[in-house]
Design brief:
Blueprint lengths: L8 H14 L17 E10 L5 E4 L5 H15 L4 E4 L5 E5 L8 E6 L2 E6 L2 H14 L16 E9 L5 E7 L7 H13 L4 E5 L1 E2 L2 E2 L8 H4 L3 E2 L21 E2 L4 H12 L4 E8 L4 H6 L32 H17 L4 E5 L6 H5 L1 H9 L5 H18 L3 E5 L12 E4 L8 H4 L5 E3 L2 H4 L3 E2 L10 E4 L2 H5 L16 E8 L7 H8 L2 H10 L7 H18 L11 E7 L2 E7 L6 E5 L10 E2 L4 E3 L3 E9 L2 E2 L4 E5 L9 E2 L32 E23 L9 E7 L6 E7 L2 H4 L4 E22 L19 E6 L1
Parallel strand pairs: 2-3, 2-4, 4-6, 8-9, 8-21, 9-14, 14-15, 15-16, 16-17, 17-18, 18-21, 19-20
Antiparallel strand pairs: 1-7, 5-6, 5-7, 10-11, 12-13, 22-23, 23-26, 24-25, 24-27, 27-28, 27-29, 30-31, 31-34, 31-35, 32-33, 32-34
The structure holds acetamide and zinc ion (ZN).
Length: 774
């Protein structure tokens, strides 16, 4: 080491030009295995070794912190630092150039050294992240590691981001994420060249930022009753006087530390103060800011809150605005970001409709309805934010009324398309569609996942997300600032619950945000991903391996069951058994659909290089008279009701069917010939917190011609039997004594949840997994 290698930048440019022009000796760009995938990258023969005598030189004093940052990476794992100098000829040279944009860089590594040419400080930082990812993962270790050769593969990279806004949102309200864990996530974001951390600091479930003028926001608003043993949607509201033992908040000093740590990593912290809804925590502290017609105890909510989620700031009370302005004063002073996010989502107008102050405000301001009252609220607060020299951000509900001037809209509903309404009015926007980029959703086959909400956003779903749609008007695209993964934390009780949901999907978000649209290639991505995950592993960060689990479908076809097994990872093989044994590397290789026509238990798992990668999936297929028989009266996906396979305790796992709850769920099984029947049953799930309950009435009718049906019996349930708490599966079994070919089930919905339910008044749903006829 030590030899000064680059005498002129021209030489390097020539090398670059030749390499990219000819491709001579270069492997393809995929062979530089880093995420997010660079614009252009070629690996060439050779490696550069970093030792205690390696010198990092920077072209100007302003870049020196970058060299010091890079040097600091080696201190703990390698036990040495690098010499840093300004203006010299180091083995690693970092210089500014003026033909690149601020975040862009060129990187040349050969066995003699490294040259980084950066458009700006940020570009230099990102070049160093590229180097970091190609170093042995032990570079992330917190303690000394012996015997590591700190090498970087020779390569040429030219890189710049696709989008300026490359974000992650962390909901620190539902689950208070300790400061140390936020810092750790920021460092992992930096490795991915993500640059915006949107902190959802306030919600019904906790106020997480010290506001000196309003101490009760944290004294009262950051604490709630302990219902941690119960899933979030099932948690009952607090009672007056109950002790509030679960809490946490960031002091302003904590936040300054987070901001500084993030700034050093090119990450901007964007604070969100949600209004006018998601405000029970603030209103628990200052109940006088709720509409005076609120007749309920206002506490910090441990769960969804039921109709307490309707308790929002009073828009008719001047004190509300004085209070929020006081909060904004401190937020604007604390956060250097030019943005403040004002939320604006999911504001139910229940109390505004009844509140004399809100109604008076509507009269005074000539507002036709409560939506425009919210618009008044948001515009008034936006003007205040702007008076502090900041720009306003908000969720896409702001498009329900007149938009605040200049507001940047975050599209989350309807694949994010709600934001296009704002784009049509010339507003900038960020895409964080719930259906693809909400990291709270399941990331893999649900049978294996910790409990969370809704359907799946798998790693591949996130990776394949393309924000710019063909049907967009041409004026929308320049208004799109970028994309954001949003991590809501309802189901988190520990920092590792957060990182499990965030990683690896945040890597796919980074790829969407940074890499060229044209560079998508799933097998290459997962290979590069493994390199990043090795860094997470070395940091001791828990991440999900869900991409190695098997998703099944079991479909009735011609009186048999067709079993399809799928894994997102293209580099694994699926092996299975049908004899009850645990699958191993010697078990049968799954190559195409399995066809079965009798009871079976399939056990399967994924393997790579002789090693088991995912969890064992067990599929017990139990046959009864209905199995694999035609199911009439419902659309095709309903044939899971006759696929011999039961659902899990998650009604969203694709083994459960739900219909339109405004009419009875009605279907007929054609047994194909007449049988003597003794029992007709359906499997139902109760998931209390999600308002999933069994039917009020189950009627069974039979026929021999599928025209004239005769009733053979029914089961009826009372409210007490239907609206039981908990999550469990029940088979509703009707004993019968009849001979028939066609069996019709009519399931009446249970109706609205009663007033003492966690979802009072909401229409409940029935989910059915299987029909059993004997
Ligand atoms: C949201 O999901 N309520 C923005
Ligand atoms: Zn009011």
């Amino acid at each position: 080491m030590g030899k000064m290698i680059f005498n002129s930048r021209m030489l390097v440019l020539v090398v670059w030009t030749c390499l990219f022009a000819s491709g001579l000796q270069a492997q393809d760009s995929a062979s530089v295995r880093i995420v997010p995938r660079p614009v252009e990258a070629v690996a060439v023969a050779g490696t550069f070794h970093i030792t205690s005598s390696t010198v990092v030189s920077v072209g100007d004093e302003g870049l020196k912190p970058l060299a010091e940052y890079f040097s600091s990476l080696f201190v703990r794992p390698a036990g040495f630092s690098l010499k840093v100098c300004v203006g010299g000829q180091g083995n690693i040279r970092l210089e500014r150039v003026d033909d690149l944009s601020a975040e862009a860089y060129r990187l040349h590594v050969d066995s003699n050294g490294v040259l980084i040419e950066a458009g700006g400080y940020a570009g230099g930082f990102y070049a160093l992240q590229t180097l970091r990812l190609t170093l042995p993962a032990a570079i992330e270790s917190f303690s000394p590691v012996e015997g590591v050769d700190w090498t970087i593969p020779a390569m040429h990279v030219v890189d710049s981001p696709r989008f300026a806004y490359r974000g992650l949102m962390l909901d620190v309200s539902r689950y208070f994420i300790p400061k140390e864990n936020v810092l750790q996530i920021i460092d992992c974001m930096a490795m991915l060249k993500l640059n915006k951390l949107h902190l959802h600091l306030t919600d019904d479930n906790g106020w997480r930022l010290e506001i000196k003028r309003y101490p009760r926001l944290t004294e009262v608003g950051s604490r709630r009753v302990n219902r941690n043993g119960v899933p979030f949607p099932d948690r009952r509201n607090p009672l007056p006087g109950e002790s509030t033992s679960v809490g946490g908040y960031y002091t302003q000093d904590d936040m300054r530390e987070i901001i500084a740590y993030a700034q050093a990593r090119q990450v901007e912290i964007i604070p969100e103060i949600d209004m006018p809804a998601h405000s029970n925590a603030a209103l628990a502290a200052y109940p006088e800011l709720a509409c005076p017609v609120v007749d309920k105890y206002i506490g910090v909510l441990p769960g969804l809150g039921g109709d307490h989620a309707d308790i929002i700031y009073c828009a008719g009370n001047e004190q509300t605005f004085h209070f929020l302005e006081g909060v904004i004063d401190e937020v604007a002073a604390l956060f250097p970001s030019k943005y403040i996010h004002l939320g604006g989502d999911e504001a139910w107008k229940t109390y505004w409709k009844k509140c004399p102050l809100c109604q008076q405000r509507m009269k005074d301001e000539n507002l036709p309805d409560e939506e425009e009252l919210q618009s008044y609220f948001m515009r008034r607060m936006s003007r205040y934010v702007q008076s502090k020299g900041k720009e306003v951000m908000g969720w896409d509900e702001l498009t329900n009324g007149i938009l605040p001037e200049g507001a940047i809209i975050f599209g989350w509903q309807g694949f994010g398309n709600a934001a296009l309404k704002a784009a049509a009015q010339g507003h900038r926007f960020v895409m964080t569609p719930a259906r693809l980029l909400y990291l709270i959703r399941y990331q893999g086959p649900q049978w294996f996942e910790p409990l969370t909400y809704f359907g799946n956003n798998t790693l591949k779903d996130v990776y394949n997300y393309e924000p710019i749609q063909d049907n967009w008007k041409p004026e929308y695209e320049p208004l799109l600032m970028g994309v954001q993964g949003s991590m809501w934390t309802e189901f988190c009780n520990h920092p590792s619950d957060v990182t499990y949901q965030v990683f690896p999907r945040l890597v796919a978000v980074a790829e969407v945000a940074w890499s060229p649209k044209s560079s998508k290639d799933w097998p290459t991505f997962v290979e590069a991903l493994d390199g990043y995950l090795a860094h997470l592993q070395a940091k001791g960060i828990q991440y999900a391996h869900s991409m190695y689990n098997i998703q099944h479908t079991v479909t009735p076809v011609d009186g048999k069951l067709k079993v399809d097994l799928m894994c997102e990872r293209p580099d694994v093989e699926i092996r299975y058994t049908t004899d009850g044994m645990e699958p191993g590397v010697e078990s049968a290789l799954y190559e195409s659909s399995l066809i079965l026509n009798g009871d079976a238990v399939i056990k399967c798992a994924t393997f790579c290089d002789g090693k088991k990668m995912g969890k064992t999936l067990e599929l017990p297929l139990d046959w009864n008279l209905a199995t694999a028989k035609p199911l009439l009266g419902l659309p095709a996906p309903a044939n899971i009701l006759v696929n011999g396979l039961r659902g899990s305790l998650k009604q969203t796992d694709f083994e459960w069917y739900t219909g339109d709850m405004n009419r009875p769920l009605t279907f007929t099984v054609d047994l194909l010939k007449s049988y003597e029947l003794t029992e007709c049953a359906v499997g139902c799930i109760t998931n209390y917190g999600m308002g999933c309950h069994k039917p009020r009435v189950m009627k069974v009718e039979v026929s021999d011609d599928n025209k004239a049906f005769v009733p053979v019996g029914s089961l009826s349930f009372s409210d007490a039997e239907i609206f039981k708490e908990g999550t469990f599966i029940e088979d509703l079994k009707l004993k019968v004594d009849v001979k028939a070919r066609y069996v019709r089930f009519i399931l009446d919905g249970p109706g609205n949840c009663p007033s003492d339910h966690v979802r009072p008044g909401q229409l409940s749903r029935i989910y059915v997994d299987e029909v059993v006829i004997r």
